[in-house]
Amino acid sequence: MKKIIIPFVLILLLSFSVQAQDAPSNDSEFNTWQARFRVASVIPSPGDNLEGADVDISTTVIPEVDFTYFFTKHWAAELILATTKHEVEVEGLDLGHVWLLPPTLNVQYHFYSGDFKPYVGAGVNYTIFYGEDAGDVVGMDYENSVGFSFQAGIDYNLNDKWFLNLDVKQLLLSTDVTVNAGEAIIPVEVDINPLIIGLGIGVKL
């Protein structure tokens, strides 16, 4: 699914950006603030260094909110807020669940082509792990971590105030996990690296 969606979005962005180069624009006219509400699917791609054991982290669907501030018509900064709960297993062993709170700040460049406004962005996130449940083991401890974010999306204007949004983000996210199995304490480095695909509506403030 990732191999299909990401190239599709990149092709759309490229085609719109080429059109936008020929489209007249007035850089002095733009809304400073906008907000979006999306329904997003969070798809982890986990890996670890626990002797090749397969870590399985569940996919979830969550609400997501972001606020964007435009410095110019093309350059903006977006703060993304959401939280998500994931079930965790290793080789059939239930490791319970954990909540993730990954506030993410991206710097974006916006293109313009009629009612379409594609954009690309990159930034950082700080992921807070909380609400751990240990499942079949004695305890689980996740270390908060800093990662990078890459983003591509498209806004489509419905009118002067409201617009639709399609957004795809890839977070480069890893964490050090300590598994208390009772008889042993096992350190595990887990690469979560979630792909986040969102669809929603936005408003210009």
TrEMBL record:
Keywords: Signal. The keyword Transmembrane does not apply. The keyword Transport does not apply. It holds the Pfam family OmpW. Residues 1-20 form the signal peptide. SUPFAM superfamilies: OMPA-like (SSF56925). InterPro entries: OMP/PagP_B-barrel, OMPW. This is OmpW family protein. It comes from Olleya marilimosa.
